[in-house]
Amino acid sequence: MSDAQGLDAFAALSDPVRAALSERGFTRPTEPQRKAIPPLASGRNALVVAPTGTGKTETAMLPVLSAISERDPTHGIQALYVTPLRALNRDMRERLDWWGGTLDIEVDVRHGDTTDYQRSKQADDPPDVLVTTPETLQAMFTGKKLRRALEDVEHVVVDEVHELAASKRGAQLAIGLEHLREYAGAFQRIGLSATVGDPEEVGRFLTGDRDCAVVETTDAAAIDVRVVEPEVTSEDEVLASELVTDAAVASQVRYIDEVVSENDSTLIFVNTRTTAEGLGSRLKEYGTDVAVHHGSLSKSARIDVEDRLKAGEIDALMCTSSMELGIDVGSIDHVVQYQSPREVARLLQRVGRAGHESGAVSSGTVITTRPDDTFEALAITRMAEEGVVEDAAIHHGSLDTVANQIAGVLMGFGEISARGCYEIVRRAYPYRDLDEATFKDVVRELSANHVLWLEEDHDRLEKSRGTWEYFYNNLSMIPDEQNFRVVDMASGRTVGTLAERFVVNFAAPGEVFIQGGEMWRITNVDEDDEQVKVTPVEDPGGEVPSWTGQEIPVPYDVAQRVGEMRGEAKAALDAGQSVAGVARGMAEEYPTDEHTARRALDPVARHEAAMPTDETVLVEGYGREIVLNAALGHKANETLGRLLSALVGQRTGSSVALETDPYRIEMEVPSGIYIGDVVDLLFDTDPGHVEPLIELSLKNSDALKYTLAQVAAKFGALKGWKSGRGFGRDRLLEALRDTPVYDEALRETLHVDLDAERAAAVLESIRRREVAVETVGERTPVGLAGRSSGQELLSPENADASVIETVKERIENDRMLLYCLHCGDWETKRQVKRISDPPTCPECGSTRIAALNPWADEVVKAIRKPKAERDEEEERMVERAFTAGSLVQGHGKKAVVALAARGVGPRNAARVINKLREDEDDFYRDILAREREYARTNAFWD
């Protein structure tokens, strides 16, 4: 880029802004600034598509500040900068304050945490530029002074518009911008976006399908990504024992540490918060200077590590998807992606955070952990090179958002004609196809729920007292969702939390999942206390996790590319090439090394049946396990899996266990169902019936009931709803079945959570023989390869030092009831740590003390009863109490500790006490084993 081109871009700006640029040291614009500033300075709507770190904020705001600096001062707000995250608000404030101060333009921030004093000050004396969130913009329509201030808006900048467009938050904002237009008239709209496959569509979303210049500066050649599965060395075998993990994870930790050491500042992206914690802790143990950053951490903790990375006080940040957005953490040299990034857009966004401030190519490393992972990462890097990026998947037509925004419009206007409100909603791009009859159904539902007054004869909507209450309880379209605590029944410690959606959809006694780097089996779900009680899985290698947390779904196109790559590799091997030769070819064609390629090829080379590819589905099975190997991505496989399991269940009257991933549909079917039955269903099921069949299977599902409860809250159908509790979900389903609330819940489940259209298209392709279906009566290496997913960070069974310490601490703090069996005159309740060794009666000096649960007063009463008056149960209680007393008399406080264990009892306590062992930890380890046994079996006891 020449200096002349830079001057041309900056020449479009006002004299005060150009002077400030010189003062700030801006001599040449970045590529986005060079391309976008001229159309923006001319007042055009525009979508700017560019990687994070390329000066997108200044690209949008310099022309806006230029226009404001040349305009006569007004009393109102001239520009809104809307961001999806409050953390971005903080960055915007810091970056815009300098410009505002230099140009004498007032910049302020408003969001949910803004104080009442600041809000009042902004209403009385509005800033020129206001940085805010989509939700707070909605609330601004409710104040008379702020509405007047909004009349002066000339520019709206929407940051991370691609992120918003794919959600109900974006649909809410789209209507909100049309609502704003009612006060301000036409205004300039500027969107800032990461790379997407359909920028023109995102531009239409931003502008309501009005004129929009699309300025793209993303260059796939500007990123340099390597895909590596680290080779396990003898050093890693030693390291594995030190980190209490397996050698493969140790090799990954070592490799990441080497990458971090080679760079000044590194971002390490992972796909889940669980992985962030698990991998982060191992890196810290290894000595890597790394901090962890994800959405479950407190705001102050996140800000602290962001600032520390920016200041160079730490070398690396372990982070999840929130760091994809434009949070300022300074210059990044390199990005590590742990496991496949799942999507092309995500790879570009994440790796794109590196190298921009120095003008260098963005460099990144994807560290893979298994064959699926490697094939997927290589497919994604190749698609990125080709410029094949996923669409933004704009969220169209959500009716609960319409309900929310009808109330929002009424909060602004007080009253409006139904026709006028409908036209405002329809101008928003996600609602351009909304028909008037559906809109009227939504209005009638709101009227029935006392959210508004409807004068149907006069076509009038009026604000009511219920409008106020509803609106302020539903400012956000982010669902109100509780978190369930995950509690280890044995130790009593909180393992972590689970989002309610996962608990409702998946959690049932016996299900297995991963959290905190360990596998857990659910014992009990307590909805009232919002707890999931679990026990550790003692043999992780023999278990398949039923669910592993909120994974990023793999799109259909990525899964298809993986299938294509598998097919090419298998064809080369079948043609006589050696594994080493095919691996060498892969290393030449893709950005990887021969070791990584060989590891990925291993199950393909061992696979003797037909290879599942982009054009072939392989149905395999052994016993009651039937697996469809289908490279269709997460949502299509989940949809097909639900369809097949429902049809099999309907035929047999029995339930079907189902697990899916992007490449497999695994079912455990009832006796009498064979591979041929499933193949028949693939050919015989009418593709046109997929949606109604899935709807039928969903009608009584917890997934639909849960979504229905959330949607009902957004329609005002449930006042003060808390997860549907207190109002049975079955009753809710029946009450709302023929309403727009039910229609919206069904739409969301079918077309957002699932992919009914794609599943139907796949069945159509099978019928037309465009996709082949092959079978094999055994489990195959490729079919079994999914079973290792999600287990990389599991701790071995002996990695229990922290658990043992937790058990000791819990027992020490537990209270016990002590009762003297000799004199019967002394009883007390004390914490275990405050009990003497041996426990001794202060009245008679006896050490024959029964150590009982603190709520065992009925046992003491039974002991004090004459024997002839005791019933059978009381006699058993007395017998157990005397057995406990004998243990305490013989073993002192050690017996008290054993008896304090949960569900152990005197007989098992005696076994624990009498076992020979080398150290105290083994004593507590045996207690823990007894507690776990109790936790596993107590559900079957009376």
From TrEMBL:
InterPro entries: ATP-dep_Helicase, DEAD/DEAH_box_helicase_dom, Helicase_ATP-bd, Helicase_C-like, Lhr-like, Lhr-like_DEAD/DEAH_assoc, Lhr_WH_dom, P-loop_NTPase
Entry's Gene Ontology molecular function annotations: ATP binding; catalytic activity, acting on DNA; DNA binding; helicase activity; hydrolase activity
Keyword terms, alphabetized: ATP-binding, DNA damage, DNA repair, DNA-binding, Helicase, Hydrolase, Isomerase, Nucleotide-binding
BP GO annotations: DNA repair
Top-level lineage group: Archaea
Keyword flag Flavoprotein: no
Domain Helicase C-terminal: 251-400
SUPFAM superfamilies the UniProt entry points to: P-loop containing nucleoside triphosphate hydrolases (SSF52540)
Transmembrane segments: none
Stretches assigned to coiled coil: none
Alphabetized SMART domains for the sequence: DEXDc, HELICc
Helicase ATP-binding domain sequence ranges: 37-214
Protein name, UniProt field: DEAD/DEAH box helicase
